Amino acid sequence: MSHVPVMINLKDKPAIVIGAGDVAFRKVQWLLEAGANVTVIAPEGKEELQALEDEGRIGWKKKCFDPDDIWEAWMIIAATDSAKINREVAEAAGFHQLVNIVDQSDLGNLCFPAKLNRGRLTLAVSTGGASPHLAGKIRDELAEQFDENWEKQLEWLYKKRKEIKDLEVNEEKRKEALKHLVDQLWDNVTRGNPSG
């Protein structure tokens, strides 16, 4: 399977999660962090999901899956413990929808990498379905190299980059100044020096 890594803006996008167990709960948390408008489809499930519904953070249709449940979804995640139901979800999805089938990745067109966030920096690792556990281990290794200091450094870079882009200089000088900024940030982080 060929994958193209992309960053997707999920803010306010309708996302459906079929299932309400541990895996579904993790996917719901991931979608909420991204700002998606999440609805769960499952007759019953984890208390933590019930708490999210009580807080008004998710919708929950307490029923078995029906193909009509997903026709308006922008993103669909099938995370039940039934391979049969997950396959039915895949078959019901439209060609224009983003679909993740947690236990049969080849049935969908979307996979979730192991990710690491450091403010504006996002690192993602995928093994193409070979081993999510290995992807997590690689992510954890990267977490040691790209520690919390990166969040502050990226905010500094973001502000400085905006200042340079607003300068009335030719494109070549602007590119040179931006490259210098990145080199300075890299030295700051790798040598443990404060920026500025």
Automatic annotation (TrEMBL):
Record's keyword annotation contains Glycosyltransferase: no
Pathway assigned to this chain's UniProt record: Porphyrin-containing compound metabolism; siroheme biosynthesis; sirohydrochlorin from precorrin-2: step 1/1
PANTHER family: SIROHEME BIOSYNTHESIS PROTEIN MET8
Reactions catalysed, as given in the entry: precorrin-2 + NAD(+) = sirohydrochlorin + NADH + 2 H(+)
Keywords: NAD, Oxidoreductase, Porphyrin biosynthesis
GO molecular function, one term: ferrochelatase activity
Any single GO BP term: siroheme biosynthetic process
Siroheme synthase central domain residues: 118-145
Domain of life: Bacteria
EC category name: oxidoreductase
EC numbers, comma separated: 1.3.1.76
Protein name per the record: precorrin-2 dehydrogenase
